TrEMBL record:
Membrane-spanning residues: none
Source superkingdom: Eukaryota
Molecular functions per Gene Ontology: nucleoside diphosphate kinase activity
Official protein name in the record: nucleoside-diphosphate kinase
UniProt source species: Hymenochirus boettgeri
GO biological process: CTP biosynthetic process; GTP biosynthetic process; UTP biosynthetic process
Organismal lineage: Eukaryota, Metazoa, Chordata, Craniata, Vertebrata
Sequence ranges assigned to domain Nucleoside diphosphate kinase-like in this UniProt record: 3-140
Length: 151
């Protein structure tokens, strides 16, 4: 939908590698609308909830540890079909399978250091936004460029 929202999080490797500005720039230039953002040292409890669907996978414990090893930059972006389009902008889970021009394809090598998280469906986005943000942290603002982005 037109006012769809997705949850993105720049992972500790993306933050350490100074890719925060580059990543935000890509979504800004695309025409999406940033409605929430914070840098956070995520707790183990939050990360375990975030990745609950992967709890039986062999890499789960390492994944949670890595995600808690430094700050992440959590964001909510809004716009037309943003869930699916953001996933395309991220690339595949494995950077080795990601095309140049995608974030993981341009900046990543290793599947367990793939720079950024993005919700995989509208249902996941809803769950993750609620998990990471309080309602008052979502900022509604008048977008004066909107008519140049959506008909
Ligand atoms: P995505 O982040 O593309 O949605 P996912 O939800 O399947 O991928 O997995 C979450 C994260 O877990 C992923 O970004 C990196 C890590 N991961 C996934 N598969 C992995 C594997 N086979 N080995 C190591 N880490 C993996
Ligand atoms: Mg996922």
């Amino acid at each position: 939908g037109i006012n769809e929202r997705t949850f993105l999080a720049i992972k500790p490797d993306g933050h350490q590698r100074r890719l925060v500005g580059e990543i935000i720039r890509r979504f800004e230039r695309k025409g999406y609308h940033l409605v929430a953002m914070k840098m956070i040292q995520a707790s183990e409890e939050l990360l375990k909830k975030h990745y609950i669907e992967l709890r039986d996978r062999p890499f789960y414990e390492r994944l949670v540890k890595y995600m808690g090893s430094g700050p992440v930059v959590a964001m909510v972006w809004q716009g037309l079909d943003v869930v699916k389009t953001a996933r395309m902008m991220l690339g595949e889970t494995n950077p080795a399978d990601s095309l140049p021009g995608t974030i993981r394809g341009d900046f990543g090598v290793d599947i367990s250091r793939n720079i950024i998280h993005g919700s995989d469906s509208r249902e996941s986005a809803q769950r993750e936004i609620t998990l990471w943000f309080q309602p008052h942290e979502i900022v509604c603002w008048q977008d004066n460029a909107e008519k140049w982005i959506n008909e």
